[in-house]
From TrEMBL:
<feature type="transmembrane region" description="Helical">
    <location>
        <begin position="141"/>
        <end position="159"/>
    </location>
</feature>
<feature type="domain" description="ABC transmembrane type-1">
    <location>
        <begin position="63"/>
        <end position="266"/>
    </location>
</feature>
<comment type="function">
    <text>Part of the ABC transporter complex CysAWTP (TC 3.A.1.6.1) involved in sulfate/thiosulfate import. Probably responsible for the translocation of the substrate across the membrane.</text>
</comment>
<comment type="subunit">
    <text>The complex is composed of two ATP-binding proteins (CysA), two transmembrane proteins (CysT and CysW) and a solute-binding protein (CysP).</text>
</comment>
<keyword id="KW-0472">Membrane</keyword>
<dbReference type="InterPro" id="IPR005667">
    <property type="entry name" value="Sulph_transpt2"/>
</dbReference>
<feature type="transmembrane region" description="Helical">
    <location>
        <begin position="245"/>
        <end position="265"/>
    </location>
</feature>
<protein>
    <submittedName>
        <fullName>Sulfate ABC transporter permease subunit CysW</fullName>
    </submittedName>
</protein>
<keyword id="KW-1133">Transmembrane helix</keyword>
<feature type="transmembrane region" description="Helical">
    <location>
        <begin position="20"/>
        <end position="43"/>
    </location>
</feature>
<dbReference type="GO" id="GO:0015419">
    <property type="term" value="F:ABC-type sulfate transporter activity"/>
</dbReference>
<feature type="transmembrane region" description="Helical">
    <location>
        <begin position="63"/>
        <end position="86"/>
    </location>
</feature>
<dbReference type="InterPro" id="IPR000515">
    <property type="entry name" value="MetI-like"/>
</dbReference>
<keyword id="KW-0764">Sulfate transport</keyword>
<keyword id="KW-0813">Transport</keyword>
<dbReference type="GO" id="GO:0005886">
    <property type="term" value="C:plasma membrane"/>
</dbReference>
<dbReference type="InterPro" id="IPR035906">
    <property type="entry name" value="MetI-like_sf"/>
</dbReference>
Protein backbone atom coordinates (compact mmCIF):
# COMPACT_ATOMS: atom_id res chain seq x y z
CA UNK A 1 0.00 0.00 0.00
CA UNK A 2 1.44 3.38 -1.00
CA UNK A 3 1.84 6.29 1.39
CA UNK A 4 -0.85 8.20 -0.52
CA UNK A 5 -3.39 5.39 -0.18
CA UNK A 6 -2.55 4.92 3.52
CA UNK A 7 -2.97 8.62 4.28
CA UNK A 8 -6.22 8.65 2.30
CA UNK A 9 -7.62 5.74 4.35
CA UNK A 10 -6.52 7.40 7.61
CA UNK A 11 -8.20 10.63 6.55
CA UNK A 12 -11.40 8.79 5.65
CA UNK A 13 -11.34 6.97 8.99
CA UNK A 14 -10.90 10.23 10.88
CA UNK A 15 -13.73 11.88 8.96
CA UNK A 16 -15.97 8.89 9.70
CA UNK A 17 -15.23 9.05 13.42
CA UNK A 18 -15.85 12.80 13.48
CA UNK A 19 -19.18 12.44 11.69
CA UNK A 20 -20.26 9.61 13.99
CA UNK A 21 -19.27 11.66 17.02
CA UNK A 22 -21.19 14.69 15.77
CA UNK A 23 -24.25 12.54 15.08
CA UNK A 24 -24.12 11.04 18.58
CA UNK A 25 -23.71 14.45 20.22
CA UNK A 26 -26.53 15.95 18.14
CA UNK A 27 -28.84 13.05 19.00
CA UNK A 28 -27.96 13.37 22.69
CA UNK A 29 -28.62 17.12 22.72
CA UNK A 30 -31.73 17.16 20.56
CA UNK A 31 -33.34 13.91 21.77
CA UNK A 32 -31.62 12.59 24.88
CA UNK A 33 -31.61 15.77 26.97
CA UNK A 34 -35.31 16.64 26.46
CA UNK A 35 -36.31 13.03 27.13
CA UNK A 36 -34.23 12.99 30.30
CA UNK A 37 -35.79 16.26 31.46
CA UNK A 38 -39.29 14.84 30.93
CA UNK A 39 -38.56 11.86 33.17
CA UNK A 40 -36.69 13.97 35.73
CA UNK A 41 -39.67 16.29 36.16
CA UNK A 42 -42.15 13.41 35.97
CA UNK A 43 -40.53 11.72 38.98
CA UNK A 44 -39.72 14.98 40.74
CA UNK A 45 -42.20 14.09 43.50
CA UNK A 46 -41.10 10.47 43.64
CA UNK A 47 -42.69 7.33 42.29
CA UNK A 48 -45.78 7.84 44.47
CA UNK A 49 -46.33 11.33 43.08
CA UNK A 50 -45.88 10.03 39.53
CA UNK A 51 -48.31 7.16 40.10
CA UNK A 52 -50.88 9.48 41.66
CA UNK A 53 -50.73 11.71 38.59
CA UNK A 54 -50.97 8.96 35.97
CA UNK A 55 -53.62 6.97 37.86
CA UNK A 56 -56.04 9.90 38.12
CA UNK A 57 -59.36 9.13 36.40
CA UNK A 58 -58.84 11.73 33.66
CA UNK A 59 -55.30 10.47 33.01
CA UNK A 60 -56.44 6.86 32.78
CA UNK A 61 -59.23 7.83 30.40
CA UNK A 62 -56.78 9.79 28.22
CA UNK A 63 -54.46 6.77 28.04
CA UNK A 64 -57.40 4.49 27.29
CA UNK A 65 -58.70 6.79 24.54
CA UNK A 66 -55.27 7.03 22.91
CA UNK A 67 -54.82 3.26 22.93
CA UNK A 68 -58.39 2.75 21.67
CA UNK A 69 -57.70 5.11 18.78
CA UNK A 70 -54.57 3.15 17.88
CA UNK A 71 -56.45 -0.17 18.14
CA UNK A 72 -59.08 1.04 15.67
CA UNK A 73 -56.94 3.10 13.30
CA UNK A 74 -54.07 0.65 12.74
CA UNK A 75 -56.14 -2.32 11.44
CA UNK A 76 -58.19 -0.05 9.18
CA UNK A 77 -55.04 1.50 7.74
CA UNK A 78 -53.57 -1.98 7.26
CA UNK A 79 -56.50 -3.01 5.06
CA UNK A 80 -56.55 0.34 3.27
CA UNK A 81 -52.80 0.46 2.66
CA UNK A 82 -52.58 -3.12 1.39
CA UNK A 83 -55.59 -2.64 -0.87
CA UNK A 84 -54.25 0.56 -2.40
CA UNK A 85 -50.73 -0.82 -2.83
CA UNK A 86 -52.05 -4.02 -4.42
CA UNK A 87 -54.32 -2.13 -6.81
CA UNK A 88 -51.56 0.29 -7.86
CA UNK A 89 -48.66 -2.16 -8.25
CA UNK A 90 -50.26 -5.38 -9.45
CA UNK A 91 -52.78 -4.11 -12.01
CA UNK A 92 -52.75 -1.79 -15.01
CA UNK A 93 -55.53 0.77 -15.18
CA UNK A 94 -55.95 4.38 -16.10
CA UNK A 95 -55.86 6.95 -13.35
CA UNK A 96 -53.70 5.09 -10.84
CA UNK A 97 -51.16 7.94 -10.90
CA UNK A 98 -53.91 10.20 -9.56
CA UNK A 99 -54.58 7.69 -6.80
CA UNK A 100 -50.91 7.65 -5.85
CA UNK A 101 -50.96 11.45 -5.67
CA UNK A 102 -54.15 11.36 -3.60
CA UNK A 103 -52.48 9.04 -1.08
CA UNK A 104 -49.89 11.76 -0.40
CA UNK A 105 -52.46 14.46 0.41
CA UNK A 106 -52.39 13.91 4.22
CA UNK A 107 -48.63 14.58 4.12
CA UNK A 108 -49.18 17.78 2.17
CA UNK A 109 -51.74 19.49 4.39
CA UNK A 110 -51.54 20.60 7.99
CA UNK A 111 -53.19 18.27 10.53
CA UNK A 112 -55.30 21.22 11.66
CA UNK A 113 -56.64 21.53 8.11
CA UNK A 114 -57.48 17.82 8.25
CA UNK A 115 -59.39 18.42 11.47
CA UNK A 116 -61.29 21.36 10.02
CA UNK A 117 -62.12 19.33 6.89
CA UNK A 118 -63.45 16.52 9.06
CA UNK A 119 -65.53 19.05 10.98
CA UNK A 120 -66.92 20.47 7.74
CA UNK A 121 -68.07 17.01 6.68
CA UNK A 122 -69.42 15.54 9.93
CA UNK A 123 -70.11 18.64 12.03
CA UNK A 124 -73.60 19.99 12.74
CA UNK A 125 -73.39 22.35 9.75
CA UNK A 126 -71.28 20.00 7.66
CA UNK A 127 -71.99 17.99 4.55
CA UNK A 128 -73.70 15.09 6.35
CA UNK A 129 -74.05 16.73 9.76
CA UNK A 130 -77.78 17.33 9.55
CA UNK A 131 -78.44 13.71 8.56
CA UNK A 132 -76.31 12.49 11.48
CA UNK A 133 -78.20 14.72 13.91
CA UNK A 134 -81.55 13.51 12.58
CA UNK A 135 -80.48 9.93 13.28
CA UNK A 136 -78.99 10.84 16.68
CA UNK A 137 -75.47 9.88 15.61
CA UNK A 138 -72.74 11.90 17.31
CA UNK A 139 -69.47 12.05 15.43
CA UNK A 140 -67.86 15.39 16.19
CA UNK A 141 -66.67 16.12 19.73
CA UNK A 142 -66.81 12.39 20.40
CA UNK A 143 -64.66 9.30 19.90
CA UNK A 144 -65.75 8.68 16.25
CA UNK A 145 -64.54 12.14 15.24
CA UNK A 146 -61.17 11.53 16.88
CA UNK A 147 -60.81 8.24 15.03
CA UNK A 148 -61.82 9.77 11.68
CA UNK A 149 -59.34 12.65 12.03
CA UNK A 150 -56.56 10.27 13.05
CA UNK A 151 -57.38 7.98 10.13
CA UNK A 152 -56.94 10.88 7.74
CA UNK A 153 -53.49 11.91 8.95
CA UNK A 154 -52.16 8.34 9.28
CA UNK A 155 -53.60 6.82 6.11
CA UNK A 156 -50.45 7.04 3.92
CA UNK A 157 -48.02 5.20 6.20
CA UNK A 158 -48.80 1.57 5.35
CA UNK A 159 -49.30 2.24 1.64
CA UNK A 160 -46.02 4.17 1.39
CA UNK A 161 -44.04 1.35 2.99
CA UNK A 162 -45.68 -1.54 1.11
CA UNK A 163 -46.03 0.01 -2.34
CA UNK A 164 -42.33 0.30 -3.31
CA UNK A 165 -41.67 -3.30 -2.29
CA UNK A 166 -44.64 -4.61 -4.24
CA UNK A 167 -43.50 -2.56 -7.24
CA UNK A 168 -39.99 -4.01 -6.97
CA UNK A 169 -41.22 -7.59 -6.74
CA UNK A 170 -43.35 -7.32 -9.86
CA UNK A 171 -46.15 -9.74 -10.73
CA UNK A 172 -44.29 -12.90 -11.77
CA UNK A 173 -45.08 -14.88 -8.61
CA UNK A 174 -48.74 -13.86 -8.61
CA UNK A 175 -49.11 -14.81 -12.26
CA UNK A 176 -47.47 -18.19 -11.60
CA UNK A 177 -49.86 -18.84 -8.70
CA UNK A 178 -52.87 -18.02 -10.85
CA UNK A 179 -51.61 -20.32 -13.62
CA UNK A 180 -51.50 -23.10 -11.03
CA UNK A 181 -55.15 -22.45 -10.20
CA UNK A 182 -55.02 -20.12 -7.20
CA UNK A 183 -57.71 -17.45 -7.02
CA UNK A 184 -57.04 -13.76 -6.50
CA UNK A 185 -57.65 -13.70 -2.76
CA UNK A 186 -55.68 -16.89 -2.14
CA UNK A 187 -52.82 -15.55 -4.25
CA UNK A 188 -52.79 -12.41 -2.12
CA UNK A 189 -52.73 -14.37 1.16
CA UNK A 190 -50.20 -17.03 0.10
CA UNK A 191 -47.89 -15.07 -2.20
CA UNK A 192 -48.21 -11.28 -1.99
CA UNK A 193 -48.73 -10.82 1.74
CA UNK A 194 -45.78 -12.99 2.94
CA UNK A 195 -43.46 -11.10 0.59
CA UNK A 196 -44.33 -7.72 2.10
CA UNK A 197 -44.96 -8.67 5.73
CA UNK A 198 -41.96 -6.81 7.17
CA UNK A 199 -42.77 -3.65 5.22
CA UNK A 200 -46.35 -4.01 6.45
CA UNK A 201 -45.22 -4.33 10.09
CA UNK A 202 -42.96 -1.30 9.65
CA UNK A 203 -45.82 0.77 8.25
CA UNK A 204 -48.13 -0.32 11.07
CA UNK A 205 -45.59 0.75 13.69
CA UNK A 206 -45.22 4.17 12.07
CA UNK A 207 -49.01 4.45 11.89
CA UNK A 208 -49.36 3.56 15.58
CA UNK A 209 -46.67 6.05 16.60
CA UNK A 210 -48.33 8.87 14.67
CA UNK A 211 -51.75 7.94 16.07
CA UNK A 212 -50.44 8.15 19.63
CA UNK A 213 -48.84 11.54 19.12
CA UNK A 214 -51.41 13.24 16.88
CA UNK A 215 -52.47 16.60 18.28
CA UNK A 216 -53.55 19.10 15.62
CA UNK A 217 -56.35 17.26 13.85
CA UNK A 218 -57.65 15.68 17.06
CA UNK A 219 -57.60 19.04 18.83
CA UNK A 220 -60.08 20.45 16.30
CA UNK A 221 -62.60 17.59 16.41
CA UNK A 222 -62.40 16.53 20.06
CA UNK A 223 -64.04 19.51 21.75
CA UNK A 224 -61.57 19.15 24.66
CA UNK A 225 -64.22 17.64 26.94
CA UNK A 226 -62.57 16.72 30.24
CA UNK A 227 -62.61 13.02 30.95
CA UNK A 228 -64.33 12.25 27.63
CA UNK A 229 -62.53 13.38 24.49
CA UNK A 230 -59.02 14.24 25.64
CA UNK A 231 -56.40 11.89 24.22
CA UNK A 232 -53.05 11.74 25.97
CA UNK A 233 -51.45 14.64 23.99
CA UNK A 234 -54.54 16.79 24.59
CA UNK A 235 -54.54 15.89 28.27
CA UNK A 236 -50.89 16.91 28.59
CA UNK A 237 -51.69 20.26 26.96
CA UNK A 238 -54.67 20.71 29.31
CA UNK A 239 -52.55 20.09 32.41
CA UNK A 240 -49.85 22.43 31.14
CA UNK A 241 -52.35 25.26 30.66
CA UNK A 242 -53.78 24.49 34.11
CA UNK A 243 -50.27 25.11 35.52
CA UNK A 244 -50.06 21.51 36.71
CA UNK A 245 -46.51 20.96 35.50
CA UNK A 246 -45.87 17.81 37.55
CA UNK A 247 -49.04 16.18 36.22
CA UNK A 248 -48.21 17.28 32.67
CA UNK A 249 -44.72 15.80 32.86
CA UNK A 250 -46.05 12.59 34.42
CA UNK A 251 -48.52 12.16 31.56
CA UNK A 252 -45.79 13.12 29.09
CA UNK A 253 -43.58 10.37 30.51
CA UNK A 254 -46.28 7.80 29.73
CA UNK A 255 -46.51 9.08 26.17
CA UNK A 256 -42.72 9.01 25.92
CA UNK A 257 -42.61 5.42 27.16
CA UNK A 258 -45.17 4.42 24.53
CA UNK A 259 -43.06 6.18 21.91
CA UNK A 260 -39.94 4.33 23.08
CA UNK A 261 -41.82 1.03 22.73
CA UNK A 262 -42.61 1.90 19.11
CA UNK A 263 -38.94 2.82 18.54
CA UNK A 264 -37.80 -0.57 19.85
CA UNK A 265 -40.39 -2.38 17.73
CA UNK A 266 -39.31 -0.31 14.73
CA UNK A 267 -35.67 -1.31 15.25
CA UNK A 268 -36.60 -5.00 15.57
CA UNK A 269 -38.70 -4.91 12.40
CA UNK A 270 -35.96 -3.05 10.52
CA UNK A 271 -33.49 -5.74 11.52
CA UNK A 272 -35.80 -8.53 10.41
CA UNK A 273 -36.58 -6.72 7.17
CA UNK A 274 -32.91 -6.18 6.34
CA UNK A 275 -32.18 -9.84 7.13
CA UNK A 276 -35.00 -10.92 4.83
CA UNK A 277 -33.63 -8.70 2.05
CA UNK A 278 -30.14 -10.18 2.52
CA UNK A 279 -31.56 -13.70 2.30
CA UNK A 280 -33.39 -12.82 -0.91
CA UNK A 281 -30.22 -11.34 -2.38
CA UNK A 282 -28.21 -14.47 -1.54
CA UNK A 283 -30.88 -16.75 -3.01
Amino acid sequence: MTVHHRSHRQGAGTARRVLIGLAVVAAAVVLGVPTGIVFAHAFGKGVEGWWKAVSAPEALHAIYLSLLTVAVVVPINAVYGLSVAWAVTKFRWQGKKWLVSLIEVPFSVSPIVAGVATLMVYGSSGLVGEWLMDHDIKVMFAVPGIILATLFVTSPFVAREVMPLMQLQGTDEEEAAQVLGAGGFRTFLRVTLPNVKWALFYGLILCAARSLGEFGAVSVVSGHIRGETNTLPLYIDLLYHDYDSSGAFAAASVLTLLALVTVVLKAVVEGRRDAAHDDEALS
